[in-house]
């Protein structure tokens, strides 16, 4: 995707703060310091728009980035950081659960996992939760540049096995340093948006056909 316009919109903590323009949304979930902000910066070709930090757990809101006035990338708070208080973890959990359950423009969750390590318990819980509620998910294994290319397949297999990865789900190998996977991930996002548009159009046509049939019966 050619990026022509990117804007940080809001750090939201409540549903009434979410954007209301109904653009499709793709949320990024993952443990603290897994590289979500770096991935966003690579995806939008901006070095510093999404703030990266050496301090895990810094992101405490849902950070909205609008791209080309067509789609939102939504950066979730990282999970699994021990120094975040129990109250904060509960607040994060409630905020994310509310968003995932109720957010109509959400099209997919990108579950970000470091390719070098086995998925954490929180990663597995998040994946299971998304599958249970039938929320589309793509597993993005980041930091591919940190291990030899010859070990990619072995590490990806280990991650998929640990997650209980469903064959129908998508996986993208990614590196924020080299740009590996960027075009593939944008292609997936664009395809998902087009499929959602087609489904909405079909539903609209079905509603119109039903209304026409009802009018005919009344006559």
3D architecture notes:
- The chain has 219 residues and is α/β, with parallel strands linked by helices.
- The chain has a single domain (6-182), classed as 3-Layer(aba) Sandwich (Rossmann fold).
- The protein is 40% helix and 20% strand.
- It is built from five helices and seven strands; from the N terminus they run ββαββαβαβαβα.
- It has helices at residues 36-44, 86-102, 121-132, 152-163, 182-218, and strands at 6-12, 25-30, 62-67, 71-75, 106-114, 137-142, 170-173.
- A seven-stranded mixed beta sheet has the order 1-3-4-2-5-6-7, sandwiched between helices.
- It is globular.
- Keywords: Cell cycle, Cell division, GTP-binding, Magnesium, Metal-binding, Nucleotide-binding, Septation.
- It comes from Paenibacillus taihuensis.
- GO terms for molecular function: GTP binding; metal ion binding.
Rounded mean pLDDT score: 88
| Count of β-strands | 7
**What is the spatial order of strands in the main beta sheet?**
1-3-4-2-5-6-7
Can you count the helices? 5
Overall geometric form: globular
| Percentage of residues in strands | 15-25%
Q: At the third CATH level, what is the topology name?
A: Rossmann fold
CATH superfamily: P-loop containing nucleotide triphosphate hydrolases
The CATH architecture term is 3-Layer(aba) Sandwich
Protein name: Probable GTP-binding protein EngB
Pfam family, one: MMR_HSR1
Cofactor: Mg(2+)
InterPro entries: G_ENGB_dom (IPR030393), GTP-bd (IPR006073), GTP-bd_ribosome_bio_YsxC (IPR019987), P-loop_NTPase (IPR027417), Small_GTP-bd (IPR005225)
């Amino acid at each position: 995707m050619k990026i022509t316009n990117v804007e940080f919109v809001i750090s939201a903590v409540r549903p009434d703060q979410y954007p209301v323009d109904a653009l499709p949304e793709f949320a990024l979930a993952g443990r603290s310091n897994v590289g979500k902000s770096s991935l966003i910066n690579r995806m939008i070709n901006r070095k510093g728009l999404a703030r990266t930090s050496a301090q895990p757990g810094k992101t405490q809101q849902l950070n909205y980035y609008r791209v080309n006035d067509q789609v939102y990338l939504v950066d979730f708070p990282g999970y699994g950081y021990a120094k975040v208080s129990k109250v904060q973890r509960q607040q994060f959990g409630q905020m994310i659960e509310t968003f995932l359950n109720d957010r109509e423009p959400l099209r997919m969750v990108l579950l970000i996992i470091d390719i070098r390590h086995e998925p954490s318990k929180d990663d597995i819980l998040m994946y299971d939760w998304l599958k249970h509620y039938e929320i589309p998910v793509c597993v993005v294994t980041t930091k591919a540049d940190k291990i030899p290319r010859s070990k990619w397949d072995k590490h990806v297999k280990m991650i998929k096995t640990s997650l209980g990865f469903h064959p129908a789900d998508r996986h993208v190998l990614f590196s924020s340093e080299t740009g590996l996977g960027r075009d593939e991930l944008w292609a997936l996002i664009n395809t998902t948006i087009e499929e959602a548009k087609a489904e909405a159009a079909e539903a609209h046509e079905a509603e119109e056909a039903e209304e026409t049939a009802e009018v005919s019966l009344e006559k």
